[in-house]
């Protein structure tokens, strides 16, 4: 029986444990308690991260990781299924655009008793062909070797554009998500410190300049302290 693959949470814990062991404090009761609390907090925050659909999709569409770090097979399967659904939606939109274009270009057709039958057969054939091509595109992508960790995934997808055209349309939506809202929240806090009740008539353009000056001042102050 193959050993169970460790999730990223446990890998992070193992790394902390290894560093603690090397430092010589692993046997200390306080150190063990800290490790235990750290694992509890990490698990609480990241234990079910694989079931967060946008993050799971982003992980699969990242050429550096794909399905490698999934510990839950159901979460991985759900993410792959969701990607297929997104590809179908995108393909359907393309077909609707092409269909509207064909209707505008076509002249009036002669009456045919079997016209609806031919249309139905053609539609079913096109649908089956499209679904097969989508499955093939996703399967080929997943079977490709993973990229290097220091590579930019968006740059990799620029090279994949011709090979995986449908996936390419989806990937930028998920790989460009902001990982944290800390920076924006910090910006709002700084803006609130500038635009007080006594200065509530400050225009947006001036407020932006003040915030930029304030940020540059803080950065320069830190540089002076460091050097």
Count the strands? 0
- On the 0-100 scale, what is the average pLDDT? 76
From the structure provided, what is the oligomeric state, counting identical versus distinct chains?
Answer: single chain
**Count of alpha and pi helical runs:** 9
Order of helices and strands: HHHHHHHHH
Structure description:
The chain is an all-alpha fold and 227 residues long. The chain folds into three domains: 8-47; 56-102 and 120-175, no CATH class; 182-226. Helices cover 70% and strands 0% of the residues. The chain contains nine helices and no strands. The longest helix has 33 residues, at 73-105. It is extended, with a radius of gyration of 27 Å. The mean pLDDT is 76.
Task: Provide keyphrases for this structure.
227 residues; mainly alpha; 9 helices
Sum this structure up briefly.
With 227 residues, the protein is mainly alpha-helical.
């Amino acid at each position: 029986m193959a050993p169970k693959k460790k999730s990223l949470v446990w890998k992070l814990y193992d790394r902390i444990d290894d560093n603690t062991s090397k430092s010589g404090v692993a046997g200390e009761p306080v150190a063990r308690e800290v490790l235990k609390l750290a694992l509890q907090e990490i698990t609480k925050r990241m234990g079910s991260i694989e079931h967060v659909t946008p993050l799971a999709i982003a992980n699969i569409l990242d050429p550096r990781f794909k399905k490698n770090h999934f510990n839950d097979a159901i979460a991985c399967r759900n993410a792959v299924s969701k990607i297929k659904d997104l590809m179908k939606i995108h393909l359907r939109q393309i077909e609707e655009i092409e269909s509207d274009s064909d209707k505008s270009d076509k002249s009036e057709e002669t009456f045919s008793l079997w016209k609806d039958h031919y249309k139905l057969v053609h539609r079913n054939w096109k649908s089956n062909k499209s679904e097969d091509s989508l499955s093939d595109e996703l399967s080929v992508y997943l079977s490709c070797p993973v990229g290097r960790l220091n590579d930019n995934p968006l740059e990799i997808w620029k090279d994949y554009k011709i090979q995986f055209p449908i996936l390419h349309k989806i990937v930028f939506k998920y790989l460009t998500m902001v990982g944290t809202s800390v920076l924006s929240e910090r910006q709002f806090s700084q803006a609130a410190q500038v635009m007080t009740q006594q200065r509530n008539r400050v225009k947006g353009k001036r407020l932006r300049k003040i915030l930029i000056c304030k940020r540059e001042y803080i950065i320069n102050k830190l540089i002076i302290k460091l050097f």
